[in-house]
Design a protein that fits this description.
231 residues, two-stranded antiparallel sheet, 7 helices, Rossmann fold, globular, single chain
Amino acid sequence: MTEPSYLRETRAAYDTVAGDYARLLITKPPETSLDLAMVATFAELVKAADVGPVADLGCGPGRMTAHLSSLGLTAFGVDLSPEMVAVARRTYPELPFDEGSMTDLDLGDGAVGGVLAWYSIIHFPTEMLPAVFAEFHRVLSPGGHVLLAFQVGDERLHLEQGYGHAVSLHAYRRPPGLVAELLSEAGMDVRARLLREPEGLEKVPQACVLARKPVPVDHEVGAATHRRTWT
């Protein structure tokens, strides 16, 4: 099967910038306290559910994978770019990283308790998001959570420069309501949304959406009965 052009251009762009991207983001992390609070909440929910490790999808050089590990989670990273994976493995040799696409993950059904896609859905055309979210739903165990971060807007950008390199790459800004709706259509329960104003070099508002894969009703009833026994 012929690989879609958006995957080829994304891989090529991130292979090109991998080293400089990693150096800049390690020295100047872009996350705000609000962003980190959402990640911390996600981590606590995943730990409480205790249904599997966390997959950092589109992990880049592994920064957020390492951050998840520091929060007490068993985490691993997956990225489309071989160069990004190589940087992540060198930087965090204690953590596992592999190449892969979010549209076709080499993971079993219900294999993970959490999915983090930290600004990594932004290069998928909108019409591909249902397939991406269906794959998230497939690999999540019931009771597992997904956290997405992305730029807010309603436009497609063509990027020609990145981290001091010439690239050719498309990026999509999206309304949080659309992302939440598509997650719901994929079978997720949306639990929270964060919309914040731009800070620093950011040009547009930023968003996070937190969702959960439902637990079958019979399991929920049993868990609720157990909780009432002890409270």
